[in-house]
Design goal:
The chain is an alpha/beta fold. It has three domains: about 325 residues, 3-Layer(aba) Sandwich (Rossmann fold); about 70 residues, Luciferase, domain 3; about 100 residues, GMP Synthetase, Chain A, domain 3 (2-Layer Sandwich), CATH 3.30.300. It contains 15 helices and 24 strands. The strands form five sheets. Strands 2-1-11-10-12-13-14-15 form an eight-stranded mixed beta sheet. Strands 7-6-5-3-4-8-9 form a seven-stranded mixed beta sheet, sandwiched between helices. Strands 16-17-18-19 form a four-stranded antiparallel beta sheet. β12, α10 and β13 form a beta-alpha-beta unit. It starts with 12 loop residues before the first helix and ends in a 9-residue tail after the last helix. It binds adenosine-5'-diphosphate (ADP). The site of adenosine-5'-diphosphate has 24 residues, from β14, β18 and β19.
Length: about 550
């Protein structure tokens, strides 16, 4: 027997309609080079609607891919909604990609137009001749003095919108592609992930639940995560769905201005990768941060020492999230269950360093690599983490990377994890970053976590280096905190009681900075290249 409920497609236009009516006065704040610009959801929704007519006047095809090369701004957010609501596909371009990779993704996606912030035009313009399908470059003037070339492909955002009539949107098919985001290519060529209206709808609802971020009307949300990184972690949709105010940092992504924004705009929830939170801490100390209720951090492992420093200095530890571009990106969130309240802080710190609980809608399993044999959830046994659910990719655009999907319908994350009896995930490492030594492996994440707990260490990344006897041995690459000193021997001594003896790095090198990826994670790939021929003292 079938249920007798309406078959209501889960699409974005009704969410837009609702926000326009119900949250018309709610604030959208964008930081600019010189101050802040304020708008409301009501005005913003008008822009979203006029963009639909603008796309028509540009002659974009019905299912065109619309590229954006932009900071986190209210205009960028309008494109985030206008593209899918008009039946087209938003394609966020990572402004920090290498030129060849940008050319690759633009051509792979066959973008017809790119909307670019004027301040970023000098980065994009030299590549335009390499873009095979791009017909228009729409410049969004953010007041930067960057020169705008006199070229028939250039369109000014203001001119395009002048006279554009507001559009009412309707999408019938919830499975229609709404947005695409390429993986940042840490592990090979970028691959295209295609979100649907339905997946974004359900993912946003999940972000609004208590088990995830509990985003609500009274929130003031600051997505520090760039809007081009993994679907802005859902923070371009969930606030619009829940009526939360948004504060968008624009080009002011430096720790000082971010800290200022959190204080002056009374931000309640902010989200970014660990390197951002590491840099921001000194800028946050001494400010009135009483509005802040949730600091979300993910993208790579959150060092225990970092979360603890936030707890000690600001009274608010970091809440860790795990996810991937392929998982929209929310895969798990480490909100501690109520029965842990009152436990000693050291114990809680340990628990907070886990990746946490998958929300309803994300199924998780760990398997013996290259099999479908499920491993037990005893927090001891580790295996490849696999996930499935309505906002988890089923394939990459154009069939790339088919090996990342199992025959029985799961996404292979490329992460190695253990899961405890309550379902909390503990990520051990990325498969590619594990250090293989004498038939066993060492978790680089664990070693880094311990090293970064040393007061003299600002950043630490551990990589495997070739070893004649053991295949690979760990090399610790350490950045000392400003003005601090430590020797290799001191650091090894610090690690000795904390890890198995055979895990101790064979060498420690002191470097000025750990190289970062285009989304601000430690780039082990670059470190491995840099230390490719390194001879370990034991080798
Ligand atoms: P890229 O693979 O190019 O870095 P993503 O941002 O999609 O692009 O990266 C997803 C990966 O980031 C995950 O597979 C995992 O290895 C890592 N990651 C994300 N969140 C966490 C976390 N909280 N702890 C450890 N690793 C994480």
């Amino acid at each position: 027997m079938d249920g007798l409920m309406q078959s209501y497609p889960l699409t974005l236009p009704p969410v837009l309609d609702r926000a326009e009516r119900m949250y018309a006065d709610r604030q959208l704040v964008t930081a600019t080079a010189t101050g802040v610009e304020r708008t409301t959801y009501g005005e913003w929704a008008g822009l979203v609607r006029r963009l639909g007519s603008a796309f028509e006047s540009l002659g974009l095809s019905e299912r065109a891919r619309i590229g954006t090369f932009a900071w986190n701004t209210a205009r960028h957010l309008a494109l985030y909604w206008a593209a899918p609501c008009s039946g087209r596909v938003l394609h966020t371009l990572n402004i920090r990609l290498f030129p060849e990779q940008l050319t690759f993704v633009v051509n792979h996606a066959e973008d017809e137009v790119i909307f670019v912030d004027r301040s970023l035009l000098p980065l994009l313009w030299p590549l335009v001749p390499t873009f095979a399908t791009v017909r228009h470059i729409v410049v969004m003037d953010d007041g930067a003095p960057a020169e705008i070339p006199d070229d028939p492909r250039i369109v000014h955002f203001a001119d395009l919108l002048a006279g554009a009539a507001p559009m009412r949107y309707r999408i019938e098919d919830e499975n229609l592609a709404a947005a695409m985001c390429y993986t940042s290519g840490t592990t090979g060529n970028p691959k295209g992930v295609l979100y649907s209206h339905r997946s974004l709808y359900l993912h946003s609802l999940s972000i609004m639940t208590e088990q995830v971020m509990a985003i609500r009307q009274s929130d003031v949300v600051l997505p520090i995560v760039p809007m081009f990184h993994a679907n802005a972690w859902g923070l371009a949709q969930a606030p619009v769905m829940s009526g939360a105010a948004l504060v968008l940092p624009g080009p002011r992504m430096q720790p000082g201005p971010l800290a200022e924004l959190i204080e002056s705009e009374r931000v309640t929830l902010a989200a970014g990768v660990p390197t951002i939170w590491m840099a921001a801490l000194p800028m946050l100390e001494g400010r009135d941060l009483s509005s802040l209720r949730l600091i979300v951090c993910g993208g790579s492992a959150v060092p225990t020492a970092l979360s603890e420093a936030y707890r000690a200095k600001l009274g608010l530890p970091i809440t860790q999230a795990w996810g991937m571009t392929e998982t929209s990106p929310l895969g798990s969130m480490n909100n501690l269950p109520p029965e842990l309240a009152g436990r000693p802080e050291e114990e809680l710190a340990e628990i907070r360093s886990r990746q946490g609980y998958p929300p309803v809608g994300v199924d998780v399993r760990i398997v013996e690599p290259d099999t479908t044999d499920e491993l037990p959830w005893d927090d001891e046994v580790t295996g490849e983490l696999q996930v499935r659910g309505p906002w988890i990719a089923s394939a990459y655009y154009r069939g790339d990377g088919a090996e990342q999907f199992t025959a029985d319908g799961w996404l292979r994350t490329g992460d190695v994890a253990a899961v405890d009896r309550s379902g909390s995930i503990r990520l051990v490492d990325r498969t590619k970053d594990l250090i293989k030594t004498g038939g066993e492996w060492i978790s680089s994440v664990d070693l880094e976590n311990h090293l970064m707990a040393h007061p003299a260490v600002a950043e630490a990344a551990v990589i495997g280096v070739a070893h004649p006897k053991w295949q690979e041995r760990p090399l610790a690459c350490v950045v000392l905190a400003a003005g601090a000193t430590a020797t290799k021997e001191e650091l090894i001594e610090f690690l000795t009681p904390r890890v198995a003896k055979w895990w101790l790095p064979d060498d420690v090198v002191f470097i000025d900075e750990v190289p970062k990826t285009s989304v601000g994670k430690f780039s082990k790939k670059d470190l491995r290249t840099r230390f490719a021929g390194y001879t370990l003292p034991t080798g």
